[in-house]
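[INFO] parsing input record for DUF2092 domain-containing protein
[DEBUG] input buffer:
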Amino acid sequence: MKTTIRDTLLSAAALAMAAGLSSCSQGGQGNAGEQNAAEPAGTAQNAGEPAAAQQPSGAEDQSAKNAKALLKAMSDYLAAQQTISLSYDSIFEVVTKDQQKLQLATSGTVLLNRPDKIHTTRQSGFSDTEMVFDGKTVSFLGKGQNAYIQAEAPGTVDNLIDQLRDKFHRQLPGADLLGSDVYGTLMSDVTDVKDLGSGVIGGKECDHIAFRAKETDWQIWIAQGGTPYPCRYVITSKQVDQAPEFTLNIREWKAGSGVGQSDFAFTPPAGAKKLDAKDLEALKETSDLPENYRMGASQ
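[DEBUG] output buffer:
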């Protein structure tokens, strides 16, 4: 996977930088012919940042080594788990043309059976969706619309992540953390690495590590002990005005024998309407933004 969720979110954030909220009197429908021009990305936050504390190069090198080792241990642990289940809460920030930062809150579940089966759910204020992949076919269900779409997508979960992004313009929840080589995916464009010590997420003590890339900063909190799973993942789009963030909090983590058996065959609910695969946009619930958000033009 050459493109990570960080790249996808950065692109979305760059567009959302000019996102507008359409008038409620219009029933949440924006004028498709209207586009808000994106404001130039501000640099004031960079100018105002305090100078980084100077560390001896030896301590800096050790911090980077520690952080890389922690990330590699997490990656190896995840790759070794044939079955994983989790619940998540996520916050996706967008910035309006008036530079107001807004947050979109979502919760859901993921059930993964390597190498080629996954079942996800997502609930938000504007969607209630389900996605099932059985190694051959991917199925999208919009429960509010009681409609679904199915498409051929043979291959592994790694392949599915790429196809969801490139073909369907959709994201798999926590995609960066579900592939077969998490370390390689996350470290592909990293320029700086830091071990920040420990923190506590949901009552679980975690190792806290931070990374810098050209267009994003990102942090991850990894559970300490024999099951080093990701507890929190934060991506900051630092080249977008107001530096919007994506935050993924993971809870109810289970792996291996702790995960119950599941049938990955998709069965549509009674009365559900089947849409053509090319009409995915008609299944509005699967979008990352609600209908009353109007995307502006990027610069």
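[INFO] The first strand starts at residue 20 and ends at 21.
[INFO] shutting down worker
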